[in-house]
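Tokens for chain A. Residues wanted.
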């Protein structure tokens, strides 16, 4: 594409916040500290996790940017960024989460492959842009369409990003056409993040945001949208980000037996404390996040200080001064995470702090990580534990 540069090395990477915990330098993958992650409901751009598969693409002149839309449709088109900006702009608050969030804890039980994320490969931002359903109307695909007249059933997003896994080809992923054309799904072609122009790490000049779905489907540095009959055959749809049972290993895996992962499951984590912390006996605050996929709400967050023998219900909130109601899509953000906090009385010298959440469809987090262990270490949504000791404990 004119104006785009796909660097062959890492000499032209953007600057990043020095407080990020770096999991890999080349390609750059990093997450904020736990405390920074929940410092505010909206995650600042600097503290939003960075997930990359290669050198960060550069675009030198957004006036030359164009997005091709083609495939199984009646009238292919190329749109400039200026034309996309002329469409109605929507601001959607949505949480993006890497499918490998909390992978390290799973790997500690039995080794898995992938970036060693702690609990912060997640962030909540206000994304600004045009709805994909509006954009697709420009090529003759009406809202709430499941199949085009030419047999298209899926929408493939193709990046300028070049990946080793694609043998040097572009990163790509797809979603069903029915989701792409649904205004209620809030799928965006985003050019802003938290009220500012996207930066390079997050997809400048244009990216896809698919709320409620694992981050791998929200393709950055968007080059082309293609309407196709089958799901994308890209590596990250067909040979990665699939949920296999614990008995599947690298010797017996058959990628064709599982569908690409889309929605992420109900999830929660404690961010106010870490395993190394020593706390005062008495009142302590346990705080963190809870989130679920598919636009469902968080119905309850439970915390325990004795490893799950007894529980307390935590306070849930999103915006200051606005009561959170799990099924209220008007005053609450259905695609956004929920922050929680609970003040508990800690009397023992050692404590096993636990959190688990329940979503509005009564989906629960599993107690045991090994019950959901999988060779790629994705979707670890088991109960989150933090082990602390009080200052009364003997050192």
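Reply:
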């Amino acid at each position: 594409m004119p104006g785009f540069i796909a660097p062959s090395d890492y000499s032209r990477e953007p600057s990043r916040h020095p407080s990020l915990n770096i999991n890999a330098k080349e390609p750059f993958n990093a997450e904020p500290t736990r405390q920074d992650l929940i410092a505010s409901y909206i995650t600042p751009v600097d503290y939003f996790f960075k997930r990359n598969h290669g050198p960060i693409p550069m675009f030198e002149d957004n006036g030359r940017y164009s997005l091709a839309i083609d495939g199984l449709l009646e009238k292919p088109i190329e749109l400039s960024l200026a034309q996309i900006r002329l469409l109605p702009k929507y601001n959607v608050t949505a949480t993006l989460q890497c499918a490998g969030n909390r992978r390290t804890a799973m790997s500690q039980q039995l080794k898995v492959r992938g970036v060693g994320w702690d609990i912060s490969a997640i962030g909540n931002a206000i994304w600004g842009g045009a709805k994909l359903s509006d954009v697709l109307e420009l090529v003759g695909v009406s809202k709430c369409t499941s199949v085009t007249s030419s047999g298209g059933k899926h929408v493939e997003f193709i990046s300028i990003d070049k990946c080793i896994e694609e043998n040097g080809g572009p990163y790509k992923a797809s979603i069903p056409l029915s989701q792409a054309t649904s205004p209620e799904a809030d799928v965006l072609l985003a050019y802003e993040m938290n009220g500012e122009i996207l930066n390079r790490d997050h997809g400048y000049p244009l990216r896809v945001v698919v709320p409620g779905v694992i981050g791998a489907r929200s393709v950055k540095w968007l080059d082309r949208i293609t309407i196709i009959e089958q799901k994308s055959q890209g590596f990250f749809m067909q040979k990665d980000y699939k949920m296999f049972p614990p008995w599947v290993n690298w010797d017996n895996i058959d990628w064709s037996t599982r569908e690409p992962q889309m929605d992420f499951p109900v999830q929660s984590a404690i961010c106010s404390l870490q395993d190394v912390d020593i706390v005062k006996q008495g009142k302590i605050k346990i705080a963190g996040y809870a989130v679920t996929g598919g636009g469902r709400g968080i119905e309850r967050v439970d915390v325990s200080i004795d490893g799950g023998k007894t529980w307390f219900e935590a306070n849930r909130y999103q915006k200051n001064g606005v009561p959170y109601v799990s099924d209220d899509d008007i005053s609450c953000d259905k695609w956004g995470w929920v922050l929680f906090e609970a003040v508990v009385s800690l009397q023992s010298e050692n404590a096993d702090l636990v959190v688990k959440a329940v979503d509005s469809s009564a989906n629960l987090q599993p107690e045991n990580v090994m019950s959901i262990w999988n060779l790629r270490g994705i979707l670890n949504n088991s109960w989150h534990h933090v082990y602390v000791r009080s200052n009364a404990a003997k050192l």
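The first helix runs from residue 34 to 37. The longest strand covers residues 122-131.
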